[in-house]
C-alpha cells in the first residue's frame, strides 16, 4: 500500500465545493507534485490530508491506517508534516528557536542537536542569521526556514504548499534545488505548486488539478510533453 | 544602565556567590519591609498587600496574554470566583468555616474550571474578537454574582458577603495584632508575609513554565496557530491550559482578597479592575515576568501616592484646592500611562522577543 492514499476526497466550505472527489496516492520515497491554477483546490486538498480541514467525503489513508478525522497535531507527530502556504514561520522567534520548535514533539535531544547542525549545514544562510528574529528574513530565507523547521521533525511525508510563492526566480531555483536534495535523502514529498514547470521538472509523477477535480495524472516527463499542459500551465503555444 | 550600576550587574552575572548574596539581601529587605512601611501607617501596609494581590493577578493574566497571546479582558471574573468560593466556605452566610488551606486549592480549581469554560467556546477566536467575548464573560460573572440572591440566596446579591473569616491556623489568626518578643506585629503585616510567600511561589512557577515545553508551545500558538499544529502541538489543549492556569492564579488571589478584606461584593469585580490588570501586564512588558511585576507595583502604588500628595501639593502651590484630588489623581495617572506607552511601546521591561522585534522594526 502507498504511504498516502486519498480516495474520493471532497472538501466543502459551506455550500462551496472546493474539492469534488479526488483520488491520489504517494508512494514511499516519491516526489509527487500537484499542479493547477489559483483556486483549483490544491491547498484545500493538502489541508484536508493533514487534518487542518475536515473532509466532507472520501478517505485519507496514511501509512496504511485511516487518517481522516485525526487532528493535525497527531498526524504531524506521526510524520505527516505540512509546510503551510505563506510559510507560517514564527516571526518573533529567532531562526534557531523556529528550528527548535520543529522538533517540539521529539524527545531525543542528542539527535535533535545533530539535526540542528545539519540544518545549518543545509541552509548556510540560516546559520548566519540564527539569532535574528525570523520575521526579518527575506521571503526566500523564510521559506528555507520553514523547510528546515519541518525537517527538524523528521517527517516521513512532507506536504509542501507553494514553496515558490512570491519569490524571485533565482530564489525559486534555489528552493527547488533544496526540495530535490530533501527528496534525494529519502523524504517522501507531495508538492503543491502553481509554478508547473519547476514542479514537474523536479517531480517523478504529477497530478493536474482543475476546479476541484484531477484532470490529468502520470509521470512528470509525460505531463511536461502533454500539449494540454503545455498550453494551460507552461505558457507555450502548441500548434 | 551605566557606570557603577552596570558594573554591579555585570559582577552579579559573573559570580554565583555574589548572586546568592544579592538574593539573600533582597529577601531580607523584603521580609523586613513591613516594619519600615508600618512607620508610615498601617494603611500603607494594607496598600502594599493590595499591590501584591494585583501583582499575583498580573502574573496570572500574563500567562494568558503574555505567554499564549490570548487577550483576556474579563480576567477579574476569576478573581471574583476565587473570592466568592472563599467567602461562601468561610463565613456565616452558609455557616461554613473551612480552613483556608482547604479553600484556596478549591478556589484555584473552580477558577481553573471557569477558565476552561471561557476557553472552550472561544478556541477559534483571536485578538479583538476574543477580547470582546472575554469582556462579556467578565460581565456575565459579575451580573450573576449580583443576582444570585433569588430564588435561592447564594451570593447575597449586591449586599455582598460580610464577616468573612480571616486566615488562621490553630490559634494563630492572620488578622489579629500581637506582640512577639516585644515587637508589634499587625494583622496586615502577617498577610504581607503570606502574600510574599505565595508571590514567590507563583513567580517560580511562571518562570519555570515559560522555559518549559508548555511555554514554548504557548509561544508557537501565539505566533502562528496553524504552524503550531503542523509542529505537532495540541493547540486546543495548550490554549485551554493557558486559560486554566491563568485563571487558577486569579482564583488564589481572589481567595486571599476575600480573607484580607473580610467583606466582598460584586462591586469589587467590575470591568475597570480587568482593564487595570491588562494595563499592568502591557505597561510592564507583556511576557516578561520581571516587567509584569514592575508594572503591577507601579500601577498599584502610583495612584495611592498621588492620593496623598495631590492635596498638600495644591495647597502649598495655590493656598487652596483647585481641582478635586480624585480627579487630578486619575488625570495624572492616565497621562503617565500615555507617556509610558509613547516612549516605551513594548513596556517598561520588554520581553526578549518583543525587544528584538521592536529594535528590528526601526530602520
Question: Would you kindly provide a written description of the structure presented here, covering whatever features stand out?
Answer:
- The complex is a heterodimer of chains A (239) and B (363).
- The longest helix of chain A has 16 residues.
- Chain A is of the alpha/beta class and 239 residues long.
- The mean pLDDT of chain A is 92.
- Helix content of chain A is 38%, strand content 26%.
- With 363 residues, chain B is mainly alpha-helical.
- Chain B contains 14 helices and 6 strands.
- In chain B, the strands form 3 sheets. In chain B, strands 1-2 form a two-stranded antiparallel sheet. In chain B, strands 3-4 form a two-stranded antiparallel sheet. In chain B, strands 5-6 form a two-stranded antiparallel sheet.
- Chain B starts with a helix and ends with a helix.
- Classes of the chains: A alpha/beta (239), B mainly alpha (363).
- At the A-B interface, helix 2, strand 6 and helix 3 of A face helix 8, helix 9 and helix 14 of B.
Amino acid at each position: 500500500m502507498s504511504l498516502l492514499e486519498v480516495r474520493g476526497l471532497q472538501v466543502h466550505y459551506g455550500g462551496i465545493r472546493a474539492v469534488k472527489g479526488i483520488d491520489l496516492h504517494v508512494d514511499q520515497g516519491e516526489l509527487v507534485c500537484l499542479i493547477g491554477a489559483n483556486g483549483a483546490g490544491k491547498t484545500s486538498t493538502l489541508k484536508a490530508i493533514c487534518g487542518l480541514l475536515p473532509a466532507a467525503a472520501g478517505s485519507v489513508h496514511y501509512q496504511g491506517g485511516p487518517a481522516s478525522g485525526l487532528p493535525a497535531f497527531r498526524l504531524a507527530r506521526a510524520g505527516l508534516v505540512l509546510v503551510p502556504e505563506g510559510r507560517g514561520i514564527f516571526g518573533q522567534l529567532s531562526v534557531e528557536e523556529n528550528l527548535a520548535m520543529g522538533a517540539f514533539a521529539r524527545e531525543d535531544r542528542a539527535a535533535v542537536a545533530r539535526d540542528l547542525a545539519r540544518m545549518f549545514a543545509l541552509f548556510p544562510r540560516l546559520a548566519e542569521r540564527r539569532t535574528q528574529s525570523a520575521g526579518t528574513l527575506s521571503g526566500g530565507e523564510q521559506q528555507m526556514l520553514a523547510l528546515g523547521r519541518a525537517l527538524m521533525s523528521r517527517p516521513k511525508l512532507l506536504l509542501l504548499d507553494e514553496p515558490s510563492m512570491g519569490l524571485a526566480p533565482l530564489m525559486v531555483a534555489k528552493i527547488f534545488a533544496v526540495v530535490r536534495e530533501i527528496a534525494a535523502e529519502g523524504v517522501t514529498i507531495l508538492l503543491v505548486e502553481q509554478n508547473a514547470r519547476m514542479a514537474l521538472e523536479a517531480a517523478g509523477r504529477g497530478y493536474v488539478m482543475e476546479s476541484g477535480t484531477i484532470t490529468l495524472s502520470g509521470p512528470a516527463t509525460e505531463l511536461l510533453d502533454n500539449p494540454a499542459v503545455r498550453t494551460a500551465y507552461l505558457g507555450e503555444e502548441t500548434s | 544602565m551605566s557606570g557603577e550600576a552596570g558594573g554591579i550587574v555585570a559582577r552579579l552575572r559573573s559570580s554565583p556567590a555574589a548572586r546568592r548574596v544579592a538574593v539573600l539581601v533582597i529577601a531580607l529587605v523584603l521580609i523586613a519591609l513591613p516594619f519600615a512601611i508600618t512607620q508610615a501607617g498601617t494603611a500603607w501596609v494594607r496598600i502594599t498587600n493590595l499591590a501584591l494581590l494585583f501583582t499575583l493577578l498580573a502574573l496570572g493574566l500574563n500567562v494568558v496574554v503574555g505567554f499564549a497571546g490570548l487577550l483576556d479582558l474579563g480576567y477579574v471574573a476569576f478573581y471574583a470566583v476565587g473570592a466568592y468560593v472563599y467567602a461562601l466556605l468561610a463565613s456565616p452566610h452558609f455557616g461554613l468555616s473551612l480552613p483556608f488551606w482547604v479553600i484556596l486549592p478549591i478556589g484555584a480549581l473552580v477558577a481553573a474550571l471557569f477558565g476552561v469554560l471561557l476557553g472552550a467556546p472561544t478556541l477559534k477566536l483571536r485578538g479583538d474578537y476574543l477580547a470582546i467575548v472575554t469582556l462579556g464573560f467578565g460581565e456575565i460573572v459579575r451580573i450573576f454574582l449580583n443576582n444570585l440572591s433569588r430564588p435561592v440566596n447564594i451570593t447575597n446579591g449586591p449586599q455582598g458577603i460580610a464577616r468573612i473569616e480571616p486566615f488562621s491556623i490553630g490559634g494563630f489568626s492572620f488578622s489579629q495584632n500581637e506582640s512577639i518578643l516585644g515587637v508589634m506585629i499587625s494583622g496586615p503585616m502577617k498577610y504581607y508575609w503570606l502574600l510574599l510567600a505565595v508571590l514567590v511561589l507563583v513567580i517560580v512557577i511562571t518562570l519555570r513554565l515559560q522555559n518549559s515545553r508548555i511555554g514554548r508551545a504557548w509561544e508557537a500558538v501565539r505566533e502562528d496557530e496553524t504552524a503550531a499544529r503542523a509542529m505537532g502541538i495540541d493547540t486546543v489543549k495548550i490554549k485551554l491550559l493557558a486559560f486554566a492556569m491563568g485563571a487558577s492564579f486569579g482564583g488564589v488571589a481572589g481567595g486571599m482578597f476575600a480573607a484580607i478584606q473580610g467583606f466582598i461584593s460584586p462591586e469589587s469585580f467590575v470591568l475597570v479592575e480587568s482593564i487595570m490588570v491588562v494595563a499592568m501586564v502591557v505597561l510592564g512588558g507583556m511576557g516578561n515576568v520581571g516587567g509584569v511585576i514592575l508594572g503591577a507595583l507601579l500601577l498599584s502604588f502610583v495612584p495611592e501616592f498621588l492620593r496623598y500628595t495631590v492635596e498638600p501639593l495644591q495647597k502649598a502651590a495655590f493656598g487652596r484646592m483647585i481641582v478635586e484630588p480624585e480627579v487630578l489623581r486619575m488625570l495624572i495617572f492616565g497621562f503617565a500611562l500615555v507617556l509610558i506607552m509613547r516612549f516605551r511601546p513594548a513596556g517598561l521591561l520588554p520581553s526578549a522577543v518583543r525587544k528584538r522585534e521592536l529594535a528590528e522594526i526601526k530602520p
